[in-house]
Specification:
heterodimer, A: 271 residues, mainly alpha, two-stranded antiparallel ribbon, 2 strands, 3% strand, B: 276 residues, alpha/beta, Rossmann fold, six-stranded mixed beta sheet
Chain lengths: 271, 276
């Protein structure tokens, strides 16, 4: 059950997107996420969707993979769009029955919300699917390093992220083990009402928390045995370098964002 | 041989316990030696291992590692640069999400230049025979492989001595064999000083020296064949002797004398063949 989670996973590959520098990927991903919210009409949204589909195709990952991680979100997407249809009463009335009024403004908002959620998910998945966790944390450490002037301890933050990522699979295995152990003692996780099921989770999480503390202490010992004293004076084996690919990605991002702004001015805003 | 680690009248007590885990212990460890520390649970063998590289400080007495007093906090980094440590649980000592990044963790902390780290990491992984797995994720490896990665992590720091605290306790027989042969390579190829804490008797047969701990003191100290000749005394403190030797001693009772220096299966077979 817990092993099906694909969000945040890394799928190694050799594509153009895989080879991009992690910093370039994070930055363009960030810019694109902002621009997803700036798309005000079908022309700009269409351009954004085209770009995102194109980028996903470039990763050479199977579309099925993306569909699989979108699947659990379908109820949320449907719910938000229905709520938009019901509550948003701007524009011309198209259909009305008792208290329910559907307007074209509502329909537009609903469509845009669905497209935005999906676009957001796809673009952030492209980032995590194609970037090794280590590269990701290294890149975040580098990108946030200017914050050092404000005495923010970026290194510790990045180290915490690395350790968290490292221990996700270990803890998932542990949950499986504890669940089996509790099942063997007659615990029941699959029947009963919601409250009962939530209560059934306590015997899993309490041992998990205790063992996590134990792991944390042991890991701290192991780290200090390997002379870890924080970020000061530390070097890195991997060196990050920008290449022509990152320049291409940057130019494409800038051009598309420019085009979106242009289209927003050119055509009527729908929401 | 040069003395590298020195315990002088060392006692140690955990703050929440009444009794001394280590009791007026005086012992030396020598450069290039493969020492195996045996003892049953609670004999103080793991505590002793942790005293060597300043995870534990002695309550009284003095531990000197590579000339540095472990009680002095300023010496901590210098001691740990010389003494690497491998723990029992392979999962709780791997820091990074990729094997080679984990091996690089130690040298990175020491501020070694990147090109040099690369070289050290590759060499360390080759010695423990994990080079082909350098880009793998640690959680997908077997226990024996994870422990070998942990050993590589210590070698990459170019420590002169490596202390292993029951590294095979959580492994299957195959993993144990892999770890032991990696240790033998460390000794033969790098001439490293190895201190192996274990409760598996058969891991002690290849050691240069066996130290048996009981109730915080050293009970026996000598070569494997010397120590294991005290069969009855070892049994009294809850330890057995290696299986081939046990069998040989049983045979001796029946009147077939194979000698008392049989520690490995090969030695047993040889003696047995010459007897019949």
């Amino acid at each position: 059950m817990v092993k099906d989670i694909t969000i945040g996973q890394f799928f190694p590959g050799n594509s153009f997107i895989h080879k991009l520098d992690a910093r370039a990927k994070i930055l363009s991903c960030f810019v694109l996420i902002i621009f997803i919210f700036l798309c005000k009409n079908f022309a700009s949204m269409g351009l954004m969707c085209f770009l995102i589909c194109f980028v996903y195709a470039l990763t050479r990952l199977s579309p099925k993979l993306m569909a699989k991680s979108l699947k659990p979100l379908v109820p949320i997407i449907i719910l938000t769009s229905v709520l938009q249809l019901y509550y948003n009463n701007t524009g011309d009335v198209l259909w009305s029955y008792k208290k329910i009024t559907i307007t074209d403004g509502g329909i537009y908002t609903a469509i845009f919300i669905v497209v935005r959620i999906v676009a957001l998910l796809v673009i952030s998945s492209v980032l995590t699917y194609t970037t090794a966790p280590t590269d990701l944390t290294d890149a975040i450490e580098k990108l946030l390093s200017p914050l050092k002037i404000f005495k923010v301890d970026i290194h510790t933050f990045a180290m915490m992220m690395t350790i968290a990522l490292r221990f996700i699979p270990t803890l998932i295995d542990e949950i499986d083990r504890i669940m089996s152990a509790q099942k063997a003692r007659g615990a029941d996780f699959e029947s009963g009402n919601l409250l009962k099921r939530i209560k059934a989770l306590f015997p899993i999480f309490i041992p998990l928390i205790i063992s996590s503390f134990k792991r944390a202490f042991e890991l701290a010992d192991a780290m200090s045995c390997r002379c870890y004293v924080g970020g000061k004076g530390r070097t890195r084996m991997r060196k990050m370098s920008f290449s022509y690919r990152d320049a291409i990605a940057g130019v494409i991002t800038v051009v598309i964002c420019g085009a979106i702004i242009f289209m927003n001015f050119q055509f009527e805003a729908l929401i | 041989m040069e003395k590298i680690i020195e315990f002088k009248n060392v006692s140690f007590k955990y703050s929440d316990e009444e009794f001394d885990v280590i009791n007026d212990l005086t012992i030396d460890f020598y450069e290039g030696q493969f020492t195996c520390v045996l003892g049953h649970n609670g004999s103080g063998k793991s505590t002793m291992a942790k005293l060597i590289n300043a995870i534990n400080y002695p309550t009284s007495g003095k531990v000197t590692s590579f000339g540095f007093d472990t009680s002095n906090e300023e010496n901590e980094i210098r001691i740990r640069q010389n003494v690497g440590m491998v723990f029992q649980n392979p999962d709780n000592q791997i820091v990074a999400t990729i094997v080679e990044d984990d091996v690089a963790f130690g040298p990175e902390n020491l501020g070694v230049p990147p090109e040099e780290i690369r070289k050290r990491v590759d060499e360390a992984l080759k010695i423990v025979d994990m080079y082909d797995y350098r880009l793998h994720e640690p959680h997908k490896l077997s226990g024996g492989q994870k422990q070998r990665v942990a050993i590589a992590g210590a070698i990459a720091m170019q420590t002169k001595c490596i202390v292993l605290d029951e590294p095979t306790a959580m492994l299957d027989p195959k993993g144990r064999k892999e770890v032991m042969s990696a240790l033998m390579r460390l000794k033969s190829e790098l001439g490293m000083t190895i201190i192996l804490v274990t409760h598996f008797m058969d891991e002690a047969v290849n050691a240069d020296r066996v130290v048996v701990m009981n109730d915080g003191v050293v009970q026996f100290d000598g070569t494997p064949s010397e120590v294991f000749s005290h069969t009855e005394d070892l049994k009294k403190i809850g330890l057995s002797v290696p299986k081939p030797l046990e069998l040989a001693l049983e045979l001796k009772k029946e009147g077939y004398d194979l000698g008392t220096k049989i520690l490995t299966e090969d030695a047993f077979l040889e003696a047995f063949r010459s007897l019949i």
